[in-house]
Specification:
Blueprint (H helix, E strand, L loop, with lengths): L2 H22 L1 E2 L13 H4 L9 E5 L5 H8 L3 E6 L2 H14 L3 E5 L13 E7 L8 H11 E12 L25 E4 L8 E4 L4 H10 L2 E7 L11 H5 L3 E2 L1 H5 L1 H4 L5 E8 L2
Parallel strand pairs: 2-3, 2-5, 3-4, 5-6
Antiparallel strand pairs: 1-10, 6-11, 7-8, 9-11
């Protein structure tokens, strides 16, 4: 598939899935989420103080992280390729009474922003849908101010692999060449395939460094012990819901996500 075809398919897929995804997944409007059933920014402190900072959220979805950051005092802009995700985002922004700019745009190129426009660029679960990651990281580097932060939250390469029938062992046949996840997002004659790109830790680290970043930290968030939590406590988890709760045993054995904190180094 060509790059343009992949982008169109991913856009169509998220337009198709947006309603169900937002309805079935609990995503906090008060804390930045990094991983399913895991602590968010208020506990992990990956970003630190964002008060007064200009923040760009790439592949923002319904902009829950931007809304949470705005409540923490940041000046936020979110962009997403899916117009239907942004419909939900606009409703949430109005509901929460915060000021978040929203753009319907491809996250691979950030040509609409001037050099050094932002103090922070963040995305959680957006990078795996971007094919040309090096170009995207170079654009993030360009739009960041001196010493600006890039927060890359993405699917862990180990989450590319399936479990055995008993759910006891992860069947990793080739870590160095993780498979693409091919997903069907439309039905009937208009069906097209989208892709999720899994990348090894080395590939992600090397791409960040090549784009001009210094990696300051890497996190593999570990889930809360939901078996000892009340329903009210579960609802307070930044990213969760019934589906993720059903995956708890697996999430407690192998990380679903990985977070890189990188600083603009030149």
């Amino acid at each position: 598939m060509s790059t343009d075809h992949i982008k169109r398919s991913i856009q169509a897929g998220w337009d198709e899935m947006a309603g169900n995804y937002q309805a079935e997944t609990h995503i906090s409007l008060d804390d930045v989420h990094y991983a399913p059933l895991c602590p968010g920014e208020r506990e992990l402190r990956i970003l630190g103080d964002v008060s007064g900072k200009a923040v760009l959220e790439v592949a923002c979805g319904a902009a829950q992280n931007s809304i949470a950051l705005a409540k923490m005092g940041a000046h936020c802009v979110g962009l997403d390729i899916s117009s239907r995700q942004l419909v939900v985002a606009r409703k949430l922004v109005e509901q929460e009474g915060v000021d978040v700019g929203l753009l319907n745009a491809d996250g691979e190129t950030l040509h609409m922003f001037r050099d050094g426009a932002f103090d922070v660029v963040i995305s959680c679960f957006g990078w795996e849908f971007i094919q040309d990651l090096e170009t995207c990281f170079r654009e993030c580097h360009r739009v960041l101010a001196k010493d600006g932060l890039l927060i890359v939250g993405t699917v862990h390469p180990m989450s590319a692999f399936e479990w055995d029938a008993d759910g006891r062992f992860l069947m990793v046949n080739d870590y160095f060449r993780p498979p693409y996840e091919v997903w069907q997002e439309l039905k009937g004659d208009s069906a097209r395939q989208g892709l999720t790109f899994f990348r090894t830790v080395e590939e992600m680290f090397a791409t960040l460094v090549s784009a001009g970043f210094h990696v300051e930290g890497i996190w593999e968030p570990y889930p809360y012990n939901i078996e000892e939590m009340t329903d009210e406590e579960k609802r307070a988890i930044p990213y969760g819901g019934p589906f993720w709760e059903s995956q708890y045993e697996r999430l407690s054995k192998v990380p679903f996500s990985i977070v890189y904190k990188a600083r603009k180094s030149d």
